[in-house]
Amino acid sequence: MDMNYFCNCDADTDMWTNDTGILSYKDHLPVSQIVIGDTNRTGSQAVYHVGSLRCYGDKSIWNAASFYQESSYLYFPTLQAELASDISFYFKTSSPSGVFLENQGLKDFIRVELSSPTVVTFSFDVGNGPAVLSVKSHLPLNDRQWHYVRAERNVKEASLQVDQLPLRLLAAPADGHLRLRLSSQLFV
Q: Cβ neighbours of residue 128 under 8 Å, at least 6 residues apart?
């Protein structure tokens, strides 16, 4: 290729040359049209070939949301979790901390967050005061790799699982409040 030109077709050589590349920016896919110009001159010819489609990547991100600013969020209707909730998701980040999800009521709340580069915290309050479960990893969780989180709460106990780390459990108070009363939107 002649580096003085953007593509080989601009070089006007007498021999066949080849411009190749891989389309990896998903907003440019799928290929629905190819436009070849400047072939109306005498001796100009073009041949094109679009190779076979090879999709690859991470099957865990088929329904992923990406956040590129600290102020980014999604919001949903109030979490319906008065007596029980089961939350699971994968995350991948380089940020040292951040809230994954949060829903609040007048005093009650539920929250899952990366509270430090090595700690995921599940906290909630059903009227007995804040309950907090934390899982600490010996390796950073903000390593731009996928990590799994599962947080559960019911009238008997709460649990938090991160990757294959030991499960954390917290028994519900025997004579405490049971209902999680939320009123705001669920923020992710």
A: 173, 176, 177
Please, are residues 185 and 169 in contact by the beta-carbon 8 Å criterion?
no
CA distance 136 to 152: 17
pTM higher than the cut 0.85: no
Instruction: Give tens-digit pLDDT for 86-129.
Output: 999 999 999 999 999 999 999 999 999 999 999 999 999 998 89
Residue 52 has pLDDT above 90, yes or no: no
Residue 32: Cβ within 10 Å count: 5
Q: How many Å apart are CA 32 and CA 43, to the nearest integer? A: 28
The SS3 call for residue 34 is coil
Q: Report angle CA 112, 116, 118 to the nearest 5 degrees.
A: 95
Strand-pair partners of 123: 111, 132
How far is the C-alpha of 43 from the C-alpha of 109, rounded, in Å?
Answer: 73
> Using the 8-state DSSP alphabet, how is residue 76 labeled?
E
- According to DSSP, residue 41 is labeled S
Strand-pairing partners, residue 148, are 90
Cα 30 from Cα 33, distance rounded (Å): 9
Give the separation between CA 160 and CA 134, rounded to whole angstroms: 7
